[in-house]
Amino acid sequence: MTRTDKNPESGRPVAVSVRGLVKHFGETKALDGVDLDVHEGTVLGVLGPNGAGKTTLVRCLSTLITPDAGQAVVAGYDVVRQPRQLRRVIGLTGQYASVDEKLSGRENLYLIGRLLDLSRKEARSRADALLERFSLTDAATRPARTYSGGMRRRLDLAASMIGRPHVLYLDEPTTGLDPRTRNEVWAEVTHMVREGVTVLLTTQYMEEAEQLASELTVIDRGRVIANGGIDELKAKVGGRTLRIRPADPLQLHPLAQALEQHRPGGPVPAVPTESGEVLVPIVSDDQLTAVVAEVTARGVTIGSISVELPSLDEVFLSLTGEKASAPQQAAPELEEVAV
Ligand SMILES: Nc1ncnc2c1ncn2[C@@H]1O[C@H](COP(=O)(O)OP(=O)(O)O)[C@@H](O)[C@H]1O
Ligand SMILES: [Mg+2]
Hints:
The protein is an alpha/beta fold. Among the domains are: 8-89 and 165-235, Rossmann fold (3-Layer(aba) Sandwich); 240-308, Alpha-Beta Plaits (2-Layer Sandwich). Helix content is 34%, strand content 26%. The chain is built from 11 helices and 15 strands. A 6-stranded mixed beta sheet has the order 6-7-8-3-9-10, with helices on both faces. α3 packs across α4 (120-133), α4 packs across α5 and α5 packs parallel to α6 (179-194). The longest helix is centred in the middle third of the chain and has 16 residues, at 179-194. 43% of the residues are buried. Bound molecules: adenosine-5'-diphosphate and magnesium ion. The site of adenosine-5'-diphosphate has 11 residues, from β2 and α1. Adenosine-5'-diphosphate binds next to β2 and α1.
């Protein structure tokens, strides 16, 4: 699949370039020829279910493991040939907390600074600046084990920022977190990107990708099954689906036709179903508003209306024609729509 020029981010220089990356563990093809690009100053979401190969990808790009084949260049350095230089320009926050629980927040950050060859003085001032930046100054001297989940994750993020990374890998940064802590992490990531960091974020959650990423690479069983701008992909997989049931069943087909022809808010592939609803893939809130306005303007009385969010399963189903290898969420969520 190729990227299109519709996405403005794709014009920026490439900070991470991966071509044909392969990593097998015995029979398991963890990475089976992965291609992707992360553009400078943007967030690429790497979306995939458990076992898709996300952590293997991050480990290859961090020089923690060596790929079997293919090429990966990060900030101009080749992962295989220039691992030492490459390590200096990356930061990594793994799926599991990497801080030492017995040490205080300040000690953790100081230690990492020293490991990265900062002088004592530099390590101290960098630790203090990051504690301040991630709102941990008050807790700086407490052991990390006394921190809340959100504070731990902030400490993790602070730790990954010590070396002023050019490129930051976030491997499932919010899996297993409660919604409030997840929001905190999202806010911090957004802040870091505004400060100019390039981020490769892996996630199992469509919602997280939508919140943070401008571009998306969907992987399954070690292979890329889709990539491109988020809006573009959402349009391709349907994003949300608006379901409109006209109160009068005779209006079903005329309504679908009218929506297709009038194209409120962009192309509208409006599909009438046997159960008497028109299904409209929605790519933006503006389009949602435009379609609803169009229905109302045509004097169609609405019997029921709902917006359905795709589950990751459905996204996979629509992209691959087969079920994701590990089933994710259960039923799709329904959102009420005020008309
Ligand atoms: N060190 C390893 N040894 C053997 N198999 C592994 C190893 N690391 C990962 N795998 C396998 O590779 C596949 C991809 O794993 P992983 O990259 O951890 O996926 P994800 O992070 O997307 O959940 C899985 O089938 C996993 O069991
Ligand atoms: Mg993983």
